[in-house]
């Protein structure tokens, strides 16, 4: 019985070691590591497309930030919820947008898992609209790199709910006094326009 207890104890230790090693490996694979070659704000998206022959094709799109944007990490990133005077409220964390159309009128529902952040704009805040055109069709190559195109605009007064926002400025808790605001207005798919 003593040998049996030692054997079972040894097996339990080996099993715990394997679980700990697996957990460590999983964390290493899932964590984002900066290698210095990718600028802050670079967005990488992956998609699975159907080729003209009907076979699945994996493709990656890398969107490099425009030179007009700061090199440092944004103070907050999320989706636009509403505007009150010179404050723009942004939902952060995991975000979702659900667009439905009834009687040719689009309706937008948004969701977010993080805090709602108030972005305060003042006369010195610079606004940019992202005007990068990304082809939603099957890419010509498995990886394409695009440089983001932006244009400076006046502060928006009619930003659609659910538009993407990236903000640089001074963050204090759930409030950012913005120096630069980048937004992307969502586009309805052609079949819903």
Fraction in beta strands:
35-45%
Main β-sheet: number of strands, strand sense, barrel status? 5 strands, mixed, barrel
Mean pLDDT score: 79
Q: Report the strand count.
A: 12
Order of helices and strands: HEEEEEEEEEEEE
In what order do the strands lie side by side in the largest sheet? Answer: 3-4-7-12-11
Task: Describe the overall structure.
By secondary structure, the protein is an alpha+beta fold. The chain has a domain at 70-141 and 149-192. It has 1 helix and 12 strands, in the order αββββββββββββ. The strands form 3 sheets. Strands 3-4-7-12-11 form a 5-stranded mixed beta barrel. The longest helix is centred in the first third of the chain and has 29 residues, at 2-30. It is globular and about 60 Å long. The chain starts with a helix and ends in a 9-residue tail after the last strand. Mean pLDDT is 79; it is low at 14-35.
């Amino acid at each position: 019985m003593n040998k049996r207890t030692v054997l079972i104890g040894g097996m339990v230790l080996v099993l715990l070691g394997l679980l700990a090693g697996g957990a460590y490996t999983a964390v290493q694979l899932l964590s984002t590591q900066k290698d210095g070659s990718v600028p802050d704000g670079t967005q990488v998206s992956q998609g699975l497309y159907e080729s003209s022959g009907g076979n699945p094709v994996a493709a990656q799109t890398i969107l490099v930030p425009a030179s007009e944007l700061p090199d440092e990490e944004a103070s907050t990133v999320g989706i636009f919820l509403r505007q009150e005077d010179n404050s723009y409220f942004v939902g952060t964390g995991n975000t979702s947008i659900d667009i439905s159309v009834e009687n040719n009128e689009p309706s937008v529902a948004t969701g977010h898992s993080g805090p709602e952040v108030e972005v305060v704009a003042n006369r010195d805040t610079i606004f940019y609209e992202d005007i990068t055109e990304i082809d939603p069709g099957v890419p010509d190559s498995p990886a394409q790199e695009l440089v983001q195109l932006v244009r400076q605009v006046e502060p928006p007064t009619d930003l659609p709910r659910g538009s993407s926002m990236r903000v640089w400025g001074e963050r204090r808790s759930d409030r950012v006094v913005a120096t630069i605001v980048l937004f992307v207005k969502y586009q309805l798919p052609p079949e819903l326009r």
